[in-house]
Amino acid sequence: MQLFHTCNFQYKTGLLLHMDHIVHLHLCWSWHNTLA
């Protein structure tokens, strides 16, 4: 059960990091478009 909890936690953390990365890319893209 502990192993499952750890994997689930890592999955959720990875998902949050992935979402944060997408938002970061979106902001960078918007910023570049503003400069263009």
How would you summarize this macromolecular structure in one to three sentences?
By secondary structure, the protein is mainly α.
| Sequence of secondary-structure elements | H
Based on Cα principal axes, name the global outline.
Answer: rod-shaped
User: Into which percent range does the helicity of residues fall?
Assistant: over 70%
Gap between N and C termini, in Å?
52 Å
Profile the largest sheet: none
Number of strands: 0
Mean pLDDT: 77
Radius of gyration (Å): 16 Å
Question: Any low-confidence stretches, pLDDT <50, length ≥5?
Answer: none
Helix/strand/pairing class, anyone?
Answer: mainly alpha
DSSP strand (E) fraction?
Answer: under 5%
Give the helix tally. 1
How would you describe this structure to a colleague?
The structure is a single chain. The chain is mostly helical. Helices cover 94% and strands 0% of the residues. The chain is built from one helix and no strands. It has one helix at residues 2-35. The radius of gyration is 16 Å and the shape is rod-shaped. The termini are far apart. The model has no long low-confidence stretch (mean pLDDT 77).
Q: Topology of this structure?
A:
Layout: H1 2-35
Entry keywords:
36 residues, mainly alpha, 0% strand
